[in-house]
């Protein structure tokens, strides 16, 4: 049984977890009550702790958006920290801690995102309904269309205009 002394030596009444204090003194064998009292400034078995006990200490998690040095010097880009068109970043990507409660990831298999044609941020590529350009349209037009349909920009730029037209043009009867 641990002897717990209240910071107020004259206190009589209920304490943490219903422990009853009489003239500032109570007893408990509950480890949770004892640990709480140690961290809250009570004297437990004649010892007063001036620092929070190790089990109750918390460590701030660094926000990865502001980490400047990493062990691996290979250049990486995190879609949650530096979102780009075509990524499927979590909500609030680049604006909140990617590992905090304000960021929600849509998960693997979500459709790629593209600029909203209405100019209102990013939307799922599957939400953008647009007709393919004419087969004779410029390569830049076909690249933009292919990207809007989910193709990575580098792959679209590497393809020829005719390859993009063959991939994305509507065929008769479809």
Which properties best describe this structure?
174 residues; two-stranded antiparallel sheet; 8 strands; 19% helix; 13% strand; rod-shaped
The H-and-E topology, N to C, reads as: EEEEHEEEEHHH
Biggest pleated-sheet summary: 4 strands, antiparallel
Alpha-carbon distance between the termini? 81 Å
Identify the strand order in the major beta sheet. Answer: 4-1-5-6
Rounded to an integer, what's the Rg over CA atoms? Answer: 31 Å
List how many beta strands DSSP finds. 8
Number of helices: 4
Helical fraction? 10-25%
Overall 3D form? rod-shaped
Kindly state the mean pLDDT as a whole number? 74
Low-confidence stretches: none
**Approximate strand percentage:** 5-15%
SSE blueprint:
Elements: E1 2-5, E2 13-14, E3 20-21, E4 25-28, H1 31-39, E5 43-44, E6 47-48, E7 113-115, E8 122-124, H2 139-148, H3 153-158, H4 161-168
Antiparallel strand pairs: 1-4, 1-5, 2-3, 5-6, 7-8
Structure explained in plain terms:
- The strands form three sheets. A four-stranded antiparallel sheet has the order 4-1-5-6, covered by helices on one side. A two-stranded antiparallel ribbon has the order 2-3. Strands 7-8 form a two-stranded antiparallel ribbon.
- The chain has helices at 31-39, 139-148, 153-158, 161-168, and strands at residues 2-5, 13-14, 20-21, 25-28, 43-44, 47-48, 113-115, 122-124.
- The model has no long low-confidence stretch (mean pLDDT 74).
- α2 crosses α4.
- It starts with a strand and ends in a 6-residue tail after the last helix.
- The protein is of the alpha+beta class and 174 residues long.
- The chain is 19% helix and 13% strand.
């Amino acid at each position: 049984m641990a002897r717990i002394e209240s910071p107020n030596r004259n206190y009589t009444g209920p304490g943490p977890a219903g422990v009853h204090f009489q003239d500032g003194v109570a007893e408990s064998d509950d480890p949770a009550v004892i640990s709480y009292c140690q961290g809250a400034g009570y004297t437990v078995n004649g010892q007063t702790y001036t620092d929070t006990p190790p089990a109750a200490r918390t460590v701030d998690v660094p926000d990865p958006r502001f980490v400047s040095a990493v062990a691996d010097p290979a250049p990486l880009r995190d879609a949650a920290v530096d979102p780009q068109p075509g990524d499927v970043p979590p909500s609030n990507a680049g604006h909140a801690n990617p590992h905090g409660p304000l960021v929600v990831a849509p998960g693997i298999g979500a459709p790629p995102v593209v600029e909203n044609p209405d100019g209102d941020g990013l939307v799922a590529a599957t939400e953008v309904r647009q007709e393919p350009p004419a087969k004779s349209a410029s390569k830049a037009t076909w690249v933009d269309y292919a990207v809007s349909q989910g193709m990575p920009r580098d792959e679209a730029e590497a393809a020829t205009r005719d390859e993009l037209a063959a991939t994305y043009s509507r065929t008769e009867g479809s």
